[in-house]
């Protein structure tokens, strides 16, 4: 299998994703993460929020704290804390029969220093 990874372009032959569950329970109420690893990338799933309806998404950045909070209609939230030194590039793609078309792009968001 040949794999080439670059900053913006990734090409590889598909192979089945390795799925594993990790339990990093450090406090009461912690849940296991479901991870899928592919060449040059990793997906982390939060199965406890599958099927929930999103009400709104917030991005917050300050000099010492960054987060993305996803609020659900059932009054629960998923909070993703982000370490300093990041850039978020946001786009709204539409995928039809394997073709991807970008409907909208937003300016890059850089973490506050």
What does this structure look like?
This protein is mostly beta strands and 113 residues long. The chain is 0% helix and 53% strand. Residues 6-19 and 21-26 have low confidence and may be disordered.
Structural features:
113 residues, three-stranded antiparallel sheet
One letter per element, helices H and strands E, the order comes to EEEEEEEEEEEE
User: What general outline do the C-alpha atoms trace?
Assistant: globular
Number of contiguous helices = 0
Strand content: over 45%
**Helical proportion, percent range:** under 10%
Question: What low-confidence regions span 5 or more consecutive residues with pLDDT below 50?
Answer: 6-19, 21-26
Alpha-beta content class = mainly beta
Number of domains as seen in the coordinates = 2
β-strand number: 12
Instruction: Please describe the biggest sheet, giving its number of strands, its sense, and whether it closes into a barrel.
Output: 3 strands, antiparallel
The Rg value, from CA coordinates, equals 17 Å
Compact overview of the structure:
This protein is mainly beta. 0% of the residues lie in helices and 53% in strands. 1% of the residues are buried.
SSE blueprint:
Elements: E1 3-5, E2 10-12, E3 18-22, E4 33-38, E5 41-45, E6 54-61, E7 66-72, E8 77-82, E9 87-88, E10 91-96, E11 99-105, E12 109-110
Antiparallel strand pairs: 1-2, 3-4, 4-5, 6-7, 7-8, 9-12, 10-11
